[in-house]
Amino acid sequence: MEILDVDGPPFHLIRGGSSSTELKVIRMTDHTALVFVLDCLNYMIRSTCKNSLPTADMNLIHVLLHDFTFVRNLLEDVDDAQHANISALAHQALEELDPFVANVLQKENHAFHLPALKLGYFKKRMMQMQMQKAEQYSFSRINSSHQMSFGMEERIDLVGLEDEVLKLKDQLTGGRQQLEVIALVGMGGIGKTTLAKHLFNDVSITYHFHIRASACVTREYRRRDVLFGLLSSISEDKDKIKSSSDDNILQELLYKHLKGHRYLIVIDDLWSLDAWEDLKPLLPNDGNGSRILVTTRLNDVISCIRPQSTPHVLRFLTQEQSWDLLRQQAFGNREECPSDLSEVGREIAATCGGLPLAIVVVAGLLAKNVKLEFWMEVCVRLDSYVGNSQQIMDILALSYEHLPRHLRCCFLYFRALPEDSDVLVNRLIWLWIAEGFVHPVEEKVIENVAESYLMNLVDRNLIVVHKKNMNGTIRICRMHDMLRQLCSIKAEEMNLYQPSSCYSRDASSSTPMISSHDRCFHSHDFHDISETTSCAPNIRAPFCYVEYEGSKQIRTSYVYKFVRVLNLCSLLLFAFPLEILQLFYLRFLELWVQKLENLPTKISNLWNLESLIITKEEGLGGVTITFSIWKMTKLRHLRISDEVQFGKPRPYDMGYPNVLNELQTLSALKLSHLHKHAEEVLNQTPNLKKLTFYRGPFKKGKFHFPNLSSLMHLESLKFSENSWQPTRTSIPGPHYFPHGLKKLILSGGHMDWKEISNLGKLQSLEVLKLRRNCFYGAEWRTEEGDFARLKFLKLSWMDLKQWNTCDSHFPNLQHLVLERCKYLEEIPISLGAIPTLHLIEVHGCGQSTLDSAKRIQQEQEEMGNDELQVLGHIVHNQFDECQVM
User: Cβ–Cβ contacts within 10 Å for residue 724, how many?
Assistant: First the structure.
């Protein structure tokens, strides 16, 4: 295997981030090491070079595959000592198997022999443990498969905070018209963020303020992250905001968005005055009743911000309030607490010291097992703790200790993600799978298995649901900062987390600082580190990059050869770094590049890759996918932020497999006037679930919708037409679309409103989003029988004036959103008669549109329907119309 020279072609970094951040590196756990071994063994058996191996070695490969599969299946049941021994065997096997994989990829056939790894003793010992486990009850493992649990999800129980809510709502919406700062102060876990979130989403607050925005500051303050958080709440053009390298531009944008509006800004978890001093000049005081709500643990911070005022200090809950909260969290509203659990439950609640977070987490544990014996044992263990911060951390740790091993890995992985960030669940699941945390289950899609892991953590109140999709699945989740602190402590205790000093510019030192277990590399605002490291055999690729900080500087960092996750989404690279093609074991790769015209031909060297995500800065020329992509049979998710077209095969490519059966996500396939190419690609990706088509700004003429009827598993489809000239494209009949299509997004295209009737006949469609004049004209007239199952409808930036419909045309509509439809005169009054409709949102439309929504609500209230809610604000001036996009 050739190792690229450090002085070779540079890995061009155009822009980095703050020097206060770090690269996140996670060590390989026992289970993921075994997954590595199984991947290699399976690859060796499938490879074209297997016939060149001695028969004895091939037999040994099959024996190792059988034995390691057995070990993996019983790994949950072994003790720590056995874990350490098995891990050592797995790593030994990895080192021995790696040369073969490299030889196969380089088309070399160097002979080598595998060691005989003695797994017999461990197999026998684990079988004994499995039999013992079946005969006895173990408190250290909780069988949760048949227990009903009620996690927090989106329900917010404000036990003990009712009076505070009333006072704060009055303070937010009443009083002086001058800008005011309102502060919530209290220790971690006391309920500050929960209370702020409740107020932020309250219907009366939403109606009162024109603009609402929030950002979490965190202990390691990063100005750019705070600005991006606030602007993301206001502006739709998040990609443009994120790609801006100038914080001054972001500050100006924030000020302009807020100027002239009555706004509510929530600044959560403020640790120092630095963030406040940066934000204060950006918050205009227009004498219109705007408010700033700050949460912090530090009284001295608030005393500096508002020296003459008294903050709202949140207190511990009383014993009765603690019991009310624990009971609600453990049982929800569906059933009462059994009488035999009441006494011990009250004792447990009292032991939590009145801290809401501790009560909620313990309730998540109790909800998994409602037997009296279990509750009493929990009570005994809790009774040894008292109420200071370390003991509260011990209380929170109790839930961690009762996690199965595979869920511990998933929980600890949050340590590798940015602090206090919104975590996209789809991406998190891809990462978990790439790391090998998710155990395959027969006849189940592995993403669904991973989702069940997530729900298990949610049910235990270790992860908080932040946003949901229309189908009820979780879209965004978060982790409370105290639980993240617990996560960090446990990861460091297990030596799973390692700081970024492993990755350095200096390859001359002989000090071995790179662990053989490092296999996860996340760059959250990358910075260079001056520590020394070793250019040991475990190094696969020295990354050279160019950093511009006043002058051009060459930097080098190193990545361990067994890395499974390489996330460089925070580094803007000049081009695709070819060094990456040496990282044969990658499962997840995310890049942010300035220019990209073609994927490298040798991308197929990444034989294990499952997820490839590339954000392209200059998205004008499209990206050609080399035909070798068809060799990557494990690929499940391919997302590139530009037009994608697949290159034509060459004569010597014809031996490649021609189907990617595992591919579920493909974005963004090129839209053109010829649909033949797209249909050929789709015939080779038959199991797609999410598909995006895209057309760039310089394209002219009509595009054609390809026939998608063969994609039997497709659930989500997006067409994005970004051409600067109207295309007047036609929508084909429903027979062109998959029968099971549930979600459809159309952006741009300027089609006639009459064309939409073809979409109305899609019998499985539940979510429809229409953006940027995808349909053009003054009137939309729906037809009887259209949109029979539609639950969510969003119209955004449409020039529609009149909408003529009736309740029978949308019989199952639940949620209607109108955004920036500034010419729409009114919402059809008949929509109020839809029995399932519970929410209408009107944002940035005209006054008449919002008034019509209120009339619908009032009419329904007069008829006894109090379920329908109306949220929204109007466009106040021309600047607002053109800027908030």
Answer: 10
* Measured CA distances, 594 to 9, 232, 473, 755 (Å): 17, 23, 34, 38
Q: What is the CA radius of gyration of the chain?
A: 29
Q: Tell me the residue ranges of DSSP E strands in 749-835.
A: 751-752, 767-771, 775-776, 779-781, 792-796, 802-804, 815-819
Burial class (CB in 10 A: 0-12, 13-18, 19+), 647: middle
Residue 702 near residue 731, CB atoms below 8 Å: no
pLDDT of residue 507: 30
Residue 303 to residue 308: CA distance in whole angstroms: 8
Residue 155: CB atoms within 10 A of its CB come to: 12
Contacts of 878 (CB under 8 A, 6+ apart): none
CA 225/CA 218 separation, integer angstroms: 10
Q: Which two tokens stand for residue 80?
A: 């720590």
Cβ atoms 862, 839 nearer than 8 A: no
- CA dist., res. 564 & res. 586, Å (int): 4
Listed in sequence order, the residues at least 6 apart from 702 whose beta carbon sits closer than 8 Å to its beta carbon are 673, 727, 728, 729, 730
Exposed e or buried b per residue across 649-683, where buried means at least 16 C-beta atoms within 10 angstroms of its C-beta: eeeebeeeeeebeebbbbbbbbbbeebeebeebbe
Give the pairing type, strands 180-185 and 312-313.
parallel
Could you give the strand order of the β-sheet that contains 211-216, starting from the edge strand earlier in sequence?
A: 211-216, 263-268, 291-296, 180-185, 312-313
**Token output for 218:** 């965190």
Sign for the CA dihedral angle at 34, 90, 41, 588 comes to: positive
AA identity, residue 358: A
**φ, ψ of residue 228 in degrees (nearest 5):** -65, -40
Using omega within 30 degrees of 0 as the cis cutoff, is the peptide bond preceding 134 cis? no
Contact indicator for 706, 680 with CB cutoff of 8 Å: no
Q: How far is CA 633 from CA 46, 79, 441, 580, 657, in A?
A: 12, 36, 20, 19, 8
In sequence order, the 6+-apart residues with CB closer than 8 A to the CB of 426 are: none
- Helix H or strand E segment including 15: strand 13-15
Integer distance in angstroms from the first to the last C-alpha of the chain?
Answer: 50
Rounded Cα distance, 531 and 554, in Å = 16
Q: Which is nearest to 385 in space by CA: 355, 357, 359, 353?
A: 353
**pLDDT on residue 691:** 96
pLDDT of residue 370: 87
Report the pLDDT value the prediction gives residue 488, as an integer from 0 to 100. Answer: 86
3-state secondary structure of 598: strand
SS3 string of 693-722?
EEECCCCCCCCCCCCCCCCCCCCEEEEEEC
Indicate the burial class of 11 (C-beta count within 10 angstroms; 0-12, 13-18, 19 or more): buried
Angle at the Cα of 262 from the Cα atoms of 259 and 265, rounded to 5 degrees: 85
Cα gap 581→558, rounded to integer Å: 14
pTM of the complete model:
0.73
Q: For residue 47, what pLDDT is reported?
A: 65
How far, CA to CA in Å, does 867 sit from each of 767, 770, 790? Answer: 21, 26, 19
- Torsion region of 761: left, alpha or beta (phi above 0 gives left; psi -120 to 50 gives alpha): alpha
Alpha-carbon distance of 213 to 195, in angstroms, equals 16
> Residue 835: which of 794, 855, 864, 870 has the closest Cα?
864
Determine the Cα–Cα distance for residues 432 and 443; give it in Å rounded to an integer: 19
Task: Spell out the residues 6+ positions from residue 390 whose beta carbon is closer than 8 angstroms to its own.
Answer: none
Low-confidence residues of the chain: pLDDT under 50: 1-28, 129-154, 386-387, 499-518, 524-550, 877-885
CB 542 within 8 A of CB 556: yes
Q: At what angle do helices 405-412 and 30-46 cross, to 10 degrees?
A: 100
